Amino acid sequence: MSVLDPLSHALAAVVATTHAAVTALGADPDAGGTWLLSIAAVVVLVRLALLPLVVRGVRQAHAAARARPHLKRLSEKYAGRRDPDSMRAFLEERRQLGAEHGVSRLGCLPTLAQVPVWMALYHLLAHVSAGTTVGALTPTLVASFGAATVLGVPLAAHGYGGGGAHLAVVAGLAGTAAVISYVTQRHLVLPNTVTADLPETMLGVQQLVPLLSAGGMLVAGGVVPVALLAYWVCSSLWTCGQAAVIHRWFPTPGSPAALRLERE
Question: Phi first, then psi: what are they for 262, rounded to 5°?
Fold first, then answer.
């Protein structure tokens, strides 16, 4: 039994419930569109549930940006002083600055809390694509999922091989997810990042992140199920929209996006 099983079973219940609801409205239970709507419902519900963590993460980014100049001056004040008394004073003043600006020592927690959900979603779709039942996704539903297709390509199919139609669907989904990811990282996330005082190496790494993210999706497209590629497209669209809202109306202080907003 995996520690992700409770989450996977909860997500399976969402998929099964959505599938039943769409079918009750007259949709074909074995149609690819019915199952794609079920997958999209998981994306929407999960991302809505995670919005409080996203809001907290944005607030923490703003707090850290406001505290950064003060922390820099504090580091300069204690530069070269390594005696115990100076170190204790430095840590105490750093703690006070963090409390003053609302910086949490658990600032990365909102992002980390989302990782188990992403992993559970991956395992759920991977297991069902392999014909394994998961929670509310009974053998009948798993068989229905296995029979569902998109433009003639099974949702449970893997890889870029398998003929022209298969390649077109897989490459199209993987390429769409990759392009959306690149646009999000390059044009929405990077401009909302404070790069002042960052080492040249770190700046170079940040510039590579959009390409690495997009390239990773293209490579993974050769091994993951078509259903997971469809999930990535839906999730990438949500992430892009969410990043656009933050970039436009809630940019990190000191970032290029914030400077642009101040000039408007």
Answer: -65, -30
Determine contact, residues 162/222, Cβ cutoff 8 Å.
no
pTM: 0.89
Burial of 97 (0-12, 13-18, 19+ CB in 10 A): middle
Q: Note whether 210 and 153 are within 8 A (CB).
A: no
- Is 32 in contact with 150 (CB distance < 8 Å)? yes
Q: Using one digit for the tens of pLDDT, what is the confidence trace for 124-141?
A: 988 998 999 999 999 999
Residues for the chain: how many in total? 264
Phi-psi bin for 131: left (phi > 0), alpha (psi -120 to 50), beta? left
CA distances from 54 to 47, 113, 173, 191 (A): 9, 10, 26, 18
Q: What's the CA gap between 145 and 23, in Å, rounded?
A: 13
What residue ranges do the domains of the chain occupy? 1-147, 151-264
